[in-house]
Write a structure and sequence with these properties.
single chain, globular, 16-stranded mixed beta sheet, 891 residues
Length: 891
């Protein structure tokens, strides 16, 4: 194990230290897993185009965590050329083009020579970058450009109630935007952004080195571009047409559009002073289908905007670089480091800063975007929320969607993947205040990450926070030092992977406090993986850590590791102990805390046909409510509408089939299942007819409804779908398992041999649910599968045939390979056959530590009397891993 740990630490990109790698490896070993078992392709949508970072973030936590930590540190270095080289393409999937060629600049007039020498190279770069952007969008008509600019900007906040001033026309759906973006060379725009950023930094350095005595404001034409230069005193900048704005010093005020590129490039450079920015939408480091760069070289500044400000790139590049000073940033949405189909960066080198945003900012990446907020040092306050209610889930809690957050556009057919959101803080005692979706969180094929290198920090949020990966996505939180406090007032936080999500949480040192109502550090649910590592310090946990809950007939994985310190736990966890809990949770050095109770049971529905059929428009209204989200304040309205539709009966259901079946989504499926079961056989027959004669979307909906409602009659159509409909194969296999459809076994078995790993995993889980004897022989070949999900399901299936399971278990126990022998112990212990536990009891004396560990776990509470002495003696086993497990089990 030590050799593997050292080799991982030695990898070029690895940043976990040797002790952290070994601790994770040892914890996984307790449950007969290896570090390599964490590698997994987690996307059921094979054709979806994902960036390298999003794919690796979901599928390779050990390798990717080091790479990600390296890139966070790269952000602190402010080496933007290296950032573009190492980060932009793998994070966004946008390939950078070759360097843009120079083009002849326009004329220059009336600018003093010394000033011209500093500004002219920048202006010439803008001219060339403008030409590159025109080329990048040349396949779009002017009206298409305008429609794309407005539509992407309107879609970015994820809430259409946010009015963005320059959005005037109709807004395309995201799919329509994607079609137009196929005509755009985003890589060329990004390359133009790098060229302009580099030239702006060089111009700023030259201007800072000069000695200026000019006052007031002057307008010049340089390389054919309008340029405004403010002198060393206080100036007021309200211009909206300047392509380059320079201010040489003083306490200035900005109210116009500066450093904002819309189909072109624009630069703002302010050399210092205590400045005030109160600007409109799209200003100060914002690019939409263009490039906007803003640089402020010092002073205690106040940045106030509304939307698309302060480092916001939408199908473009937007960068704000701020040096030193105690600064204040406030805006509504889409900024402070926001990227969507492009790159948005806000970098503040230091000072005690306050960042405030309503929603979608402070390091947010939406589709094919990279949004990054970097703060070098200082005692900072990050606050997000208060603008958009997270309703109906909560009546008084808001979305944050901030502080290292990635988000895609979810759809049952795959939707549109998200982007990468990063928040990097180099040093200082910082406060992170958020509500829902924040502090390293992500949703739907995205990546959210927060990295804090030092200081005593406080993290406070309500829900979906502090390394929370929700639905086919990943989240990484790294806090490297300091006595930190983590508070979540509801749950889903502190390293939770949900619905194939992968969460990774690392706190390296310090005396930390983890407080939450429901969150349990290191949680995997709905086939997610949650990994939590606290490397050292005297820590306090309010809830028992490490929790896992299986779903869809497949395991989940929650891993909790605390490596050092006199820690305090509630309940059954203690220092120096190890626990492997069901489904599968690993606690190394975790208790079921209070979880949200079940939803209130709905009132019994009226008899079908007892309510007269109303107008179709009234049925449509009932349907829209019935298929809503049944949580919080909407619960009663949903239930009442479902009951009304059941009471109307078949006339309502026939309207639903004719008008809404093809558009059934994940929420609607639940309502359909309740309505079908409420109406009965007539509704089932109507679904069956549509399954035989409808299109593929309708067929897909019928299968989903059948599985959700446990409608056995739907099983009759599944074999044909499995054999003839590749796009619906996995769905049909899962439904067959849910319905325990023995008639599907012959159709499922061949998919084990010809399918990709995702389908193989789905097929084995379904076969285990069905439990048909004809599939047991095949399952025996998979009990040592390298895929832990396949292995778990195969064992459960083999156990349905006790005689075959007994023979297989004994063969495996006799194998020299420890991993196989441990699997044999598991099979024998779960047989419940005469004398099968005697075989497991004998394994307590096996020379291999892993076999002894598995025997202890399997005999916990049911050890045969003749083996209890050997069971208890393992508390003094010379190998610490064995002894730690023995401390937590009883014969």
């Amino acid at each position: 194990m030590a050799v593997l740990a050292l080799s991982l630490v030695g990898m070029a990109a690895a940043q976990l230290d040797e002790r952290e790698v070994r601790g994770l490896e040892d914890a996984l070993y307790l449950a007969n897993f290896r570090l390599d078992d964490l590698k997994s392709d987690r996307s059921p949508f094979r054709t979806m185009a994902l960036s390298d970072w999003i794919r690796d973030g979901m599928g390779d936590p050990m390798g990717f965590s080091g790479k990600l930590m390296h890139c966070h540190r790269l952000g602190i270095s402010r080496d933007w050329k290296q950032v573009f080289a190492e980060v932009v393409t793998p994070a966004t999937g946008i390939p950078l083009s070759d360097p843009i060629p120079a083009v002849p600049p326009g004329e220059t007039s009336n600018c003093p020579e010394e000033l011209l020498a500093a500004i002219r190279p920048l202006a010439e770069t803008l001219v060339s970058a403008d030409a590159a952007i025109r080329k990048a969008v040349s396949a779009l008509t002017p009206s298409e450009q305008r429609q794309l600019i407005e539509s992407l900007s309107a879609l970015a906040p994820d809430d259409r109630s946010i009015a963005i001033s320059y959005v005037q026309g109709p807004v395309l759906p995201i799919e329509g935007c994607q079609e137009l973006l196929k005509k755009v060379d985003l890589g060329l725009i990004c390359r133009a952004g790098l060229s302009v950023l580099s030239a702006a930094q060089e111009a700023s350095a030259k201007l800072k080195a000069g000695k200026w005595d000019m006052t007031g404001k002057n307008r010049y034409t340089i390389a054919g571009l309008p340029v405004v230069v403010g002198g060393v005193g206080p100036d007021s900048h309200g211009e909206r047409d300047a392509r380059i704005t320079i201010d040489l010093g003083g306490d200035d005020s900005y109210s116009g559009r500066h450093g904002a590129g819309v189909g072109y490039t624009s630069v703002l450079i302010d050399l210092g002073g205590n400045d005030t920015y109160r600007v409109p939408d799209l200003s100060v480091g914002a690019g939409v289908l263009g490039v906007g760069i803003a640089i402020d070289e010092g002073g205690d500044d106040r940045f106030e905007g509304q939307n698309v400000n302060f480092g916001s790139g939408i199908a473009g590049v937007g960068v704000l670089l701020k040096s030193a000073g105690n600064d204040y940033y406030r805006m509504s949405s889409v900024g402070e480091g926001f990227g969507m189909f492009g790159l948005g960066i806000l970098s503040d080198s230091g000072g005690d800063d306050l960042y405030k945003i309503g929603v979608m900012g402070q390091g947010v990446g939406r589709s094919q975007g990279l949004g990054w907020l970097v703060d070098g040092k200082g005692d900072d306050l990050y606050q997000a929320g208060g603008l958009i209610l997270n309703s109906p889930l909560f009546d008084d809690v808001y979305y944050s969607e901030a502080q290292g957050f990635g988000m895609g556009f979810r759809d049952d057919a795959g939707g549109v993947p998200g982007g990468v959101g990063l928040l990097t803080d180099g040093a200082g005692n910082d406060n992170y205040l958020g509500e829902t979706y924040c502090q390293a969180a992500s949703y739907w094929f995205s990546l959210g990450s927060l990295y804090d290198a030092g200081g005593h920090d406080n993290y406070r949020a309500y829900h979906y926070a502090q390394s929370s990966a929700m639905h086919l996505t990943s989240a990484y939180l790294f806090d490297l030092s300091g006595d930190d406090g983590y508070l979540t007032q509801f749950g889903a936080a502190q390293g939770i992977g949900h619905d194939y999500g992968l969460a990774f949480f690392l706190d390296r040192s310090g005396n930390d406090v983890y407080a939450a109502r429901d969150a349990r550090p290191g949680t995997g649910v709905s086939n997610g993986i949650g990994i939590f590592v606290d490397s050292g310090g005297i820590d306090r946990y309010s809830g028992e850590p490490g929790f896992a809950q299986a779903a869809r007939s497949m395991m989940s994985l929650g891993v909790f590791v605390d490596l050092d310190g006199d820690d305090l736990y509630p309940g059954g966890m203690s220092n120096g102990a190890a626990v492997v809990a069901p489904q599968t949770a690993i606690r190394s050095d975790e208790p079921t805390t209070q979880r949200p109770g079940p939803s209130e049971a709905p009132a019994p529905p009226p008899a079908p046909g007892s309510i007269p059929k109303p107008a179709d428009s009234e049925i449509a209204k009932l349907y829209e409510t019935a298929t809503g989200w049944r949580v919080g304040s909407s619960q009663k309205a949903v239930d009442d509408s479902v009951n009304q539709l059941i009471g109307i009966g078949l006339p309502a259901f026939e309207w639903m089939v004719a008008n809404r079946l093809a558009s059934v989504d994940r929420l609607a499926v639940r309502a359909w299942a309740r309505i079908v079961n409420g109406i009965g056989i007539d509704a089932v027959a109507a679904l069956g007819r549509k399954a035989l004669g409808g299109n593929d979307k309708e067929l897909e909906a019928v299968i989903r409804i059948g599985a959700e409602g446990n409608i056995a009659d739907i099983a009759a159509i599944l074999p044909r779908v499995i054999k003839e409909k590749p796009a619906l194969r996995d769905l049909a296999i899962r439904a067959a398992g849910t319905l325990k459809a023995r008639g599907c076994v012959d159709a499922i078995l061949p998919t084990l041999f010809q399918a990709d790993p995702i389908t193989q995993r789905t097929a084995m889980a379904a076969l285990a649910e069905i439990g048909d004897p004809s599939s047991v022989g095949t399952a025996a070949n998979y009990v040592d599968s390298p895929d832990p999900f396949v292995k778990d399901a195969a064992i459960r299936l083999v156990l349905t045939s006790p005689q075959q399971a007994e023979a297989l278990g004994k063969v495996l126990i006799s194998e020299a390979d420890e991993r196989k022998a441990r699997t044999g112990v598991v099979i024998m212990s779960r047989l419940n056959m005469f004398n099968s536990l005697d075989v497991v009891g004998a394994a307590l004396s096996d020379p291999r530590p892993g076999v002894r560990i598995t025997a202890l776990l399997e005999l916990n509470g049911r050890c045969p009397e003749q083996y209890r002495e050997a069971f208890v003696a393992l508390v003094k086993d010379p190998l610490p891993n064995v002894a730690r497990v023995a401390k937590q089990v009883r014969p």
